[in-house]
What does this fold into?
Amino acid sequence: MGKLIYSMITSLDGYVSDREGNFGWGAPEEESHEFVNEQFRSVGTYLYGRRMYETMAYWETAHTVPEMPPFGLEYARIWQAADKVVYSTTLSEVASERTRIERVFDPEAVRRLKTESELDLTVDGPTLAAHAIRAGLVDEYQLIVGPAIVGGGNRFFPDDVRVDLELLDLRRFANGVVFLRYGVANDTSSAPN
It folds into this structure.
């Protein structure tokens, strides 16, 4: 059975992008990117909302970018090898292999996917992740905290849930990035306040 992991780069004040949608302040450099590559080797399926998928589809052809560093090439291979499910009511076609579109986020279908999967799954993007968190589907939270305060934008966590967590792992990087990995501490954690 695979775990569902919510993992994203976030600012110190809890935003995955600023008010203008920018997130370059959190782009990993070589050391943290190699660590991210290791974390994502166990992922067999990515669950995306449309906007996050459109951002991540870059990795479908990243191996063709001149002078792509080896850690970028490795992440491209990892990403390309995984299945992708894009939840969108507006997307008409996909730009990557191993990708399908679902029109509705169905918690029961995601539970079945977790049960049937030998590899882990990720839910990517704060809007889609909020649905998974509210449904009690997320098993782990992995925050890659960048050394920036952005003051607003798209929040990592939704406002209307409480989840009790236990720290499973912590790692610091030379550039000030901190990786935090938490597991869910109890089964009733996603009930709205």
Helices lie at 30-40, 50-56, 70-81, 107-116, 126-134. The first strand starts at residue 4 and ends at 11. The chain has one domain: 4-136+153-184.
